[in-house]
Amino acid sequence: MPPRNPYEKYIKQYQTSNITTATPEKLMILLFDGALQFLQKAKIAIAENNIKDRSENIEGARKIIRELMRTIDLENGNNVAKQLFRLYNKMAMNLIKANVQRDSSKIDEVIQDITNIRWGFQKAIDIKNGIITVEDAMKEMPQTEIQHPAFREDNNDAG
Length: 159
Hints:
Layout: H1 8-20, H2 24-47, H3 51-70, H4 79-101, H5 104-128, H6 134-140
Helix pairs in contact: 2-3, 2-5, 3-4, 4-5
């Protein structure tokens, strides 16, 4: 058993303080970051054929995605809310497939989607706080598929 980190107690206190004092926007970013950490660990577990760690980390990421889904107001939201819900649902389904099939490529898809959504949320926060303009954010936009399959109206397997 490796020696315990003598600062572990203080690290936990800092992390708890960080969460309890965070704005709702910052909490969203923390959720995205947590999901990405789980997914990176799941990829390592798949490579090492570690069933327990693979399952636990994929399930951790899936729980975060499900929590993100619960934050969407589908009744009062617009089409973007519905599309985002469908994308989250597709990610959750891909994680189930990744776990059953031991498929890192499914995890890579989810990592890419979460990274793109996180980028958009961070830019929205930056615009709201006057750190960046909409025009500048658009210039920085990552080069991704113009229309993600989960956002297409004719997509029947995403929701």
